[in-house]
Amino acid sequence: MKANELREKTKEELEALLVDLHKEQFNLWMQKGTGALTRPDQLKKVRRDIARIKTILSEMARA
């Protein structure tokens, strides 16, 4: 997900998306632990998306 797309969303939408990404990250960790993870790059992508959302939320809080 691109930062420009995220900046167009409201704070509530970003927080909801953040919760969904945390759930997805947990599920990917469980798949990795059981050896069922077929695409290990997904874990890295989700982690970076979480970081992007947190950065944008902190920018909104400062503004």
Structure description:
The chain has 63 residues and is mainly α. It is built from 3 helices and no strands. It is elongated and about 45 Å long.
Compressed to H and E, one letter per element, the order equals HHH
- Helix fraction, binned, reads over 70%
The gyration radius over C-alpha positions equals: 13 Å
Report how far apart the termini are: 22 Å
Number of strands: 0
Count of runs of 4 or more consecutive helical residues: 3
Poorly predicted runs are none
Main beta sheet: none
Rounded average pLDDT: 95
What percentage of the residues does DSSP assign to strands (E)?
Answer: under 5%
Helical/strand content category: mainly alpha
Shape: elongated
What layout of secondary structure does this protein have?
Blueprint: H1 3-7, H2 11-34, H3 41-62
Task: Provide a quick synopsis of the model.
The protein has 63 residues and is mainly alpha-helical.
Essential attributes:
single chain, mainly alpha, elongated
